[in-house]
Design brief:
Helix content is 86%, strand content 0%. The chain is mostly helical and 420 residues long.
């Protein structure tokens, strides 16, 4: 039974045209009966022609009715051989239809012109340039990312981070890394700023604590030395040390500065080349990687990362979504302004689609065959009758008219021969 509006309309049209064809047959039957009855009482020559036309039209109508009906049903419910062909030949129809489509539509000469018109890059650019499409794409990617992060196996992710971290740390030579970091500090002159800060603080400390220096001097001095001498010595020490620190602070080329720079350079080179430093730093690294520490670090990292991603994606102004939107827009803009890259994408798509279609033509044929084969026999017959049944009724109508004309021609020729 038709189950869609389109099928209902087709069924109505089929019934209408069946009624027209059948009505024409009934009309010819009435004309034949009437002309036969009139010929018994009248001897009009034209009645013979009418009777011949109606008689032949009836035969043509019945013959074409039988032919059309035999495609989809048993005529009058009688199981005449070679009728109800659609139901009886369902498998052959599916196989032949699949073979027909493959042979006539999915061959190289047929599909090549359509494949060459396939410009995926243009379609992609035009689609992304629509704001609602860009928003939809970003939303879908964000939803997928959220689902992936939310449903990820924590133990597997933690183990992955742990394994990768261990591989990375094992490949790192801490002595070389530390030496390189100190080199950068010296190249930027950070040691100068540090030294200036320390010297300034130390000089201020010495000046502010002159009393403490005097007490220390008195404590360490001999009891025979007068107190004023101790105070004088303490003052000299404090001023001398403060002045010396001021000289270091004010003179960028002071010998102390140069000495410190030289010591730092030797220290850096020692870290870089001395096996003892390398062993000591490797021992520190191994202690960090020992036991469950790295696993705990990895678990903590994943939890923080997971919470950060979920919190961002659920926010009203997601940084990840803004980044995705910006990145996709830039990709579309770059693609639009790069005809050569567009051509590469189009050629690759065309070549891939062409190869894939030709490679799987047999599967298309199998799909059509199996689809038709899986239909119920009655369902298949009804589907095909709905599609072509209306047009087939014109065969009945034409058969009625053509049969009548042929019968009229034969009758006319016969009369001519009889009267010659």
């Amino acid at each position: 039974m038709p189950d869609t509006l389109n099928d209902i309309i087709k069924a109505q049209q089929l019934r209408k045209h069946k009624a027209i064809a059948t009505g024409l047959f009934v009309l010819m039957t009435l004309v034949y009966v009437l002309s036969t009855w009139l010929l018994k009482t009248r001897d009009d020559i034209w009645l013979g022609y009418v009777k011949a036309f109606a008689e032949a039209a009836m035969v043509g109508a019945l013959a074409d009715w039988f032919a059309v009906t035999a495609l989809f049903h048993h005529p009058l419910g009688i199981r005449i051989p070679h009728t109800n062909l659609i139901e009886n030949k369902k498998k052959n129809i599916g196989d032949n239809l699949g073979g027909f489509v493959v042979a006539n539509f999915l061959n190289a000469p047929t599909i090549r012109p359509y494949i060459e018109k396939l410009h995926v890059s243009t379609l992609l650019i035009q689609w992304i340039e629509q704001p609602q499409n860009l928003h939809l794409l970003v939303s879908e990617i964000s939803a997928i990312l959220k689902n992936v992060v939310k449903s990820a196996d924590d133990s597997m992710v933690t183990q992955f981070i742990s394994d990768q971290s261990q591989k990375l740390l094992k490949e790192i030579r801490l002595n070389a890394t530390l030496a390189a970091g100190l080199d950068i500090i010296m190249q930027r002159g950070d040691q100068v700023r540090i030294l200036n800060y320390l010297v300034s603080k130390l000089r201020t400390y010495v000046i502010d604590n002159e009393t403490m220096v005097r007490e220390r001097v008195k404590k360490e001095s001999h009891f025979l030395i007068p107190g004023f001498v101790d105070n004088l010595i303490a003052t000299k020490i404090t001023k001398g040390l403060a002045n010396y620190l001021a000289e270091i602070e004010q003179d960028p080329d002071h010998t102390v500065r140069k000495e410190i720079d030289q010591q730092l350079k030797r220290f850096i080179e020692d870290i870089r080349t001395n096996p003892a430093w390398q062993k000591e730093l490797e021992d520190i690294k191994d202690s960090l990687l020992s036991g469950d520490k790295i696993q705990q670090y990895a678990s903590s990292v994943w939890k923080h990362l997971q919470n950060a991603i979920m919190s961002d994606l659920e926010g009203t102004e997601s940084s990840i979504m803004l980044y995705l939107q910006k990145t996709i827009s830039e990709m579309a803009h770059n693609l639009k302004s790069d005809p050569a890259f567009q051509q590469k994408i189009n050629k690759w798509t065309q070549r891939t689609a062409y190869k894939y279609i030709l490679k799987n033509t047999s599967k298309v044929g199998d799909l059509i065959s199996s689809t038709v084969g899986n239909w119920q026999e009655k369902e298949l017959s009804n589907k095909l009758e709905l599609e072509v049944g209306k047009d087939l009724q014109f065969i009945r109508i034409n058969g009625t008219l053509v049969g009548g004309l042929v019968g009229l021609l034969i009758y006319t020729i016969t009369r001519m021969i009889e009267n010659s």
